[in-house]
Structure formats: structure tokens, C-alpha cells
Design a protein that fits this description.
Elements (H helix, E strand, L loop, with lengths): L10 E3 L6 E3 L4 E6 L3 H4 L4 H6 L3 H5 L1 H13 L3 E7 L10 H5 L17 E2 L2 E2 L21 E5 L10 H7 L4 E7 L1 H14 L3 E10 L6 H10 L9 E8 L5 E8 L7 H9 L1
Parallel strand pairs: 3-4, 3-8, 4-7, 8-9
Antiparallel strand pairs: 1-2, 5-6, 10-11
Length: about 260
């Protein structure tokens, strides 16, 4: 028989369209691309889009979410987008569609060009690393990815399997690019995904509504405001325990999880 201090079997968070239930032992927080190049002035994000207001505003809630997940002993994964110094893993189209495109008036620099924090989106440069307030702790997994999706040409899937992860809480930047691509990739691979809305942000205005409509079509509801929720778990004796945690809860479910949630 389990004691009252046994690890929780399942946590539940109030969500739309229904309760999101996940086992902490098999759940990971996946923090997407909270890098200096995307969040700080003179980085790739500002060069590409101009305004950093939204992405910088996401840092504080991401820090709070990260702290809560660490306290709950969830596995933590971080990603960083960037390429090898020789750009051998960077498709030429990614560079050509920037300052090499005919008639380009928008981009002043492309991937690999020298910026104020080193070469843009190049591994090992100062701008490529995660911002100071969100730096990984020892033992947390860092995935370097050459593209938008965190699963493409990376070891992410292998490392998630090694930890027997089945559920992902996903946050990071940007909503319209790396976050959305990774969320779709994870969904296609069978992970139960939860989107923490306060901790994601976009560089370009006008794309959020279209992205959010996709989440709804994919059975991923969106909780638009930050609330205080309580994780509940039952021991084998059906005793309830509540763990206070800050969450906003867009989610993705399978029909199996939906049936389990309704049974509670």
C-alpha cells in the first residue's frame, strides 16, 4: 500500500475542452528556443521582426512555469535553434529567402552573418545560448536543433523514450514558428501535449488567431488567462492531494484520455 508521501500517480489540471490528466513520472516540460538571439536586442529575432515586446514578456511566466515544474520533479528539456559554423546543416533556402531573395527590403542579415552577439543562430556563439534567467540546471536535457521542429535531425525522440515520457508540457518561442512546428511534431508522434499559453509568444502580430484555431481543430483548447490551478492525484487508497501550481492550459488529448478524464 502506498503512503501519503508516495509520488503522485496522476496530476489533473482544469483545462479546455476537458480536464488534462498526466502522470508526472512520464511527463516533461519542453522549453522551446528561449535564446538570446530571439529575445534580446540586436539578435536574429529583432533583425527579422523588429519588435521584441511579446517574446520578452514571456520570460517571466516561463521562469515561473520552469520553477514549478522543477519543484514537481518533472523532466526538463530545453531546445536551441542554431546551425554548425560551416552551415553544413542549414538548407540553402533558409538563407536565400532572407537577404539573398530578389527585391529583399526586410532582412538586413541572414543566418551565419555577424551580429552584436556573434554570428546569428550559430552554435557556440553568445547569442545562440539560452537567456540568463532560464539557463538549464545540471541534469536537464538541452537539444540543439538545426531547424524549426525539435524532432527533426535531433536526438529528442530518443531522449524522451529513454525517460519513458508520454506527456509534454510545451512552451517557448515563437508561436508561429518553432513552437507550432514542435507541437505538431510531438502530436504526430503520439505525445499528449499541453500548451502553456502565458509562456509562449510571437514575433509577428496577426498570426496568433490562425495558430490558435489550429489548436482547437486538433482538440487542443486554449485557456486564455493565467489562473491558479491545483494538481490532484490519488494514491492507491484514493486519498486526494493538492499541489498548488501556476498554469494556463491549452491541451491536446486522445479519446482515451478524454474517457479517463470524464470518469473522474
Amino acid at each position: 500500500m502506498e503512503s501519503a508521501t508516495s509520488p503522485p500517480k496522476m496530476l489533473e489540471v482544469a483545462a479546455k475542452p476537458y480536464v488534462y490528466a498526466f502522470p508526472p513520472k512520464h511527463t516533461a516540460l519542453l522549453v522551446i528556443d528561449m535564446q538570446r538571439d530571439f529575445l534580446l536586442p540586436s539578435g536574429f529575432g529583432e533583425i527579422e521582426a523588429g519588435s521584441l515586446h511579446a517574446v520578452q514578456a514571456s520570460v517571466a511566466p516561463t521562469k515561473e512555469l520552469l520553477d514549478k515544474c522543477r519543484q514537481a520533479n518533472l523532466a526538463i528539456f530545453h531546445t536551441r535553434e542554431g546551425n554548425k559554423p560551416d552551415l553544413s546543416d542549414c538548407p540553402s533556402s533558409k538563407v536565400l529567402r532572407q537577404n539573398g531573395a530578389p527585391g529583399n527590403t526586410e532582412y538586413s542579415k541572414a543566418i551565419g552573418d555577424m551580429g552584436e552577439m556573434g554570428r546569428l543562430l550559430i552554435r557556440g556563439e553568445h547569442g545562440h545560448d539560452i537567456v540568463d534567467g532560464l539557463q538549464p540546471f545540471p541534469g536537464e536535457v538541452v537539444i540543439d536543433k538545426p531547424g524549426k521542429g525539435a524532432f527533426w535531425q535531433t536526438t529528442l525522440m530518443d531522449k524522451l523514450k529513454a525517460k519513458a515520457i508520454t506527456h509534454l508540457i510545451i512552451c517557448g518561442v515563437t508561436t508561429e514558428c518553432c513552437f507550432a512546428t514542435t507541437f505538431r511534431e510531438a502530436n504526430d508522434r503520439g505525445f499528449e501535449c499541453c500548451k502553456h499559453e502565458a509562456s509562449i509568444a510571437r514575433l509577428r502580430s496577426g498570426v496568433a488567431n490562425a495558430t490558435n484555431r489550429w489548436y482547437r481543430r486538433g482538440n487542443c483548447g486554449i485557456q486564455r488567462r493565467i489562473q491558479m490551478f491545483y494538481f490532484r492525484y490519488n494514491t492507491l487508497e484514493r486519498r486526494a492531494f493538492w499541489l498548488r501550481c501556476l498554469f494556463a492550459t491549452p491541451i491536446g488529448h486522445s479519446s482515451t484520455v478524454y474517457k479517463k478524464a470524464r470518469a473522474h
